[in-house]
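WARN no homologs supplied; continuing
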Amino acid sequence: MSALSELILRRIRAVGPMSLAEFMHEALLHPRFGYYTTRDPLGAQGDFVTAPEVSQAFGELIGLWCADTWMRLGRPDPVLLVELGPGRGTLMQDALGAAARVPDFRRALRLHLVESSKTLRAAQRKRLGDAKIAWHDDLGSVPEGPMIAIANEFLDALPIVQLERGAAGWHERLVTLAADGETLVLARAAAPSALAALVPPELQRSAPGSIFEGRPAAAALAAELGRRLATAPGAALCIDYGHAQKACGDTLQAVRRHRPCGIFDEPGAADLTAHVDFASFAEAARAAGAHTHGPVTQRDFLRRLGIEARMAQLLARAAPEQRETIATAVRRLIDPAEMGTLFKVLALTSAGLPAPDGFSEQVP
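OK structure emitted
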């Protein structure tokens, strides 16, 4: 049994069941034993791979999207370039390389990375070389001002709560002990929960047994982004896997060494994620003053930005033995059977700005 498992078991024995959101926070971010605070989870030797690790074209297109958005904002100087959850810094490295093609933008940007893991901060520092970086534990400490924010596979790891529809209302699902007193399980609370207010009106009458996942931390982030975009020109780009419309369903999953595992198998040793509810996130951002665009599928977004043309350029310069790897990587990003349609892209902008690149109705 892991040290974190024992801590959680002792806490439940002492004070009773804990919320799923609290469990996820401990499993992912405990200062000594949390998943993100103790390791670099990315790559073939880690537990999962994100789009920037799949192909350099992904980060390059995001960098050019940022430069194009900056011009649509009126070329503010300085402008904050903020990445939420930058991983190893791969996306930002490729984005800054592409941004160098627009020298005025590269000079104007001020780089801010929202990252609480010391392990990943060290990886970001190494990858980004001599770039001037300000790190933050959360968005709240990022300065005010014109901003372009990027969140790639950040929202899915924010803690969720689960509510189960019972005969008399919605009950929270809590982390508690099994009959043996040594095993963690999810169990429905006996009484209906005040958290039922998180369930959208159109889902309130779902069938008994239905599961709804709410993400208060995502709603708070959307509200903060919306507030900032309402007070200074800017945009935010959110890329993640999830559903475009509000829906019920149990999507919580754990991944270790690129394979699914039980969410309670070894807390702190596996990644925990759940699908993003893009409709609710967009709604919270609009309520705070932002305009929203999309979501569109990652396939459509990257094709509109020209990923196939970029692939052709890379293939033309590649050695014969590299070509299949390059083509396979790009296919992975846009193929509907892989990341192409499961992953969605949502943009937030200040009022009065045109739709950002990638959100037109036309797909080449």
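The first helix runs from residue 3 to 15.
OK
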